[in-house]
Amino acid sequence: MISATYARSLLLKKQLRGFAVQSAAVPFAVQTAGALRLNWQKIFSTLMPRTKKEILTVERPKRVTMQDIAKVAGVQKMTVSDALNGTRSVAPATRAKIKRIAAELNYIPNFAARALSTGRTGIIAILSGPMNEPYYASMVHFLENHINSSGFHLMLMRTPREVEDLVNATGDVAVDGAIAVDMVGLVKEFQSHPTIPCVSIGTFEHSFVDYVIVDLSAGVEEALKLMLASGRQRIAYLVTATHLAQKTEVRARAYLAEMEKVGQTPEIIDVQTDDLHVLEAKFKAYIDQNGCPDALLCQNDQTAMCAFRVLSDSGFQVPEDVLLVGCDGQANMRYFNPPLSTIAQPIEEMCAVAWQFLQQRMAQPDLPRQRATLPGTLVVRKSLLAASNPNPNPKQP
After folding, report:
1. Do residues 326 and 304 lie in contact, with contact meaning Cβ atoms separated by under 8 Å?
2. Are residues 205 and 265 in contact, defined by beta-carbon separation less than 8 angstroms?
3. To 5 degrees, how large is the angle CA 212–CA 249–CA 291?
4. 220-223 LR contacts (CB < 8 Å, sep 24+)
5. Residue 81 pLDDT grade (very low, low, confident, very high; cuts 50, 70, 90)
6. 207 and 104 within one domain
7. Based on the domain organization, do 138 and 242 belong to the same domain?
8. What is the pLDDT of residues 275-330, one digit of tens each?
9. pLDDT-based confidence at residue 18 (cuts at 50, 70, 90)
10. Under a CB-based contact definition with an 8 Å cutoff, are residues 227 and 254 in contact?
């Protein structure tokens, strides 16, 4: 619909186009001293809306409803609701068709209405670390696929304040459940608010929420054995946070146990940051002050890549001077020269199990605690393959 103001402006333009022919033909012009002068006061009064009613003549776009989708898809509205909300079984082909039509029509779910009618918001909170880290990005990617395919929507949370606001909210809960990815501190917030189902993914066990953990101990032990078999006498563990160096964490526990078993003194390098620039500077300062270990186990792949850069810039060669292994299973580890070893985590499977646990917990809040342990796998590449080191102390540049 065209507004009244816009219509008057078109009429005015049409009228003004002929004012040069004769002034009498122009309704908003007067002749003064033989010249033509526009009567701007009358023009402005015409252009300005005269009533509030005229301002409200522009129609807003109509919001697409489930009924609209049902009409296009040739199904009942209830079928559309079941397909989009995952409340009942719908044939896969029909569900796919309905979702495609909903996307084409730019359908936006009305979460408030859904909450009133079903008691659920259809929103799942994901507690995650920085998305610029491939590990967290991969986790969120696979979780989002599972969540969306089940008719739910994802809400990403990354700060303690967001989680505190969620679990301490009064009245209706804003989400139906939560999945925490390696967020030990934030998971503890749900202990005081058990009405929000939560599943934890990572390396830590919990007594108050369902969890899916990855057991990296076998991979760590295998990597350490390769280092020891090469004659390495100074095997260090590089971590970014103090709690990751404690025996309660699976990698640290396996590392400390193996060092004790072979009689080597543990060497934990705790840089206390996951900022790569700060990590690089701190690790460089450490080896400048203490010399360089001849083997290095890293908390994750990102730390391993940063350590590789520092070692190379400092004149140490991998694997000749320093054996190196990370932990995560990032694909880009294989593109280094030499390719970097890693302890791969079954990320896709972990996400699938976590989503299954959360769905079961939402459906049956009184279920016994659900637990799953999946193994990590050592991927051996050239950074772990070196002849026996004749010199237990790598050369110092």
Report:
1. yes
2. no
3. 140
4. 220/250, 220/251, 220/254, 220/255, 220/258, 220/297, 220/327, 220/343, 221/254, 221/258, 222/378, 223/297, 223/325, 223/341, 223/343, 223/378, 223/384
5. confident
6. no
7. yes
8. 899 999 999 999 999 999 999 999 999 999 999 999 999 999 999 999 999 999 99
9. very low
10. no
Q: Which pLDDT belongs to residue 55?
A: 46
- Residue 179 belongs to a domain: yes
**What is the average pLDDT score of the chain?**
80
Q: What is the CATH number of the domain that holds 374?
A: 3.40.50.2300
Query: 31 with 131, same domain?
Result: no
Averaged pLDDT, 350-370 = 94
* Structural domain boundaries enclosing 83: 62-108
Domain assignment present for residue 273? The answer is: yes
Scored b (16 or more CB within 10 A) or e, 358-387 reads: bbebeeeeeeeebebeeebebbebbbbebe
Please tell me which residue, 14 or 92, carries the higher pLDDT value.
92
- The residue length of the chain stands at 397
**CB under 8 Å to 119, separation ≥6 — which residues?**
none
Whether residues 199 and 95 share a domain: the answer is: no
What CATH number is attached to the domain comprising 93? 1.10.260.40
Amino acid at 71: K
Q: How many domains does the chain have?
A: 3
Residue whose C-alpha is closest to residue 12's, from 32, 27, 31: 27
Instruction: Provide the CA 364 distance to its chain's centre, in angstroms.
Output: 27
Judgement on whether residues 190 and 84 belong to the same structural domain of the protein: no
Q: Is 0.70 topped by the overall pTM?
A: no
Tokens of 313: 């810039």
Q: Is the domain of 199 the same as that of 84? A: no
Report how far residue 262's alpha carbon sits from residue 40's, in angstroms, rounded to the nearest whole number. 95
For residue 380, is it within any domain? yes
Residue 360 backbone phi and psi in degrees, to 5? -65, -35
**CA-atom Rg of the chain in angstroms:** 32
In the listed set 38, 55, 72, which residue is the last one of a domain according to the structure?
55
Please name the residues in contact with 284: beta carbons below 8 A apart, sequence gap of 6 or more: 310, 313, 314
Which residues neighbour 154 within 8 Å (Cβ) at sequence distance 6 or greater?
123, 124, 126, 140, 143, 144, 147, 148
Choice between 171 and 279, residue whose per-residue pLDDT is larger = 279
Residues 99 and 145 reside in one and the same domain? no
Q: Does any domain span residue 116?
A: no
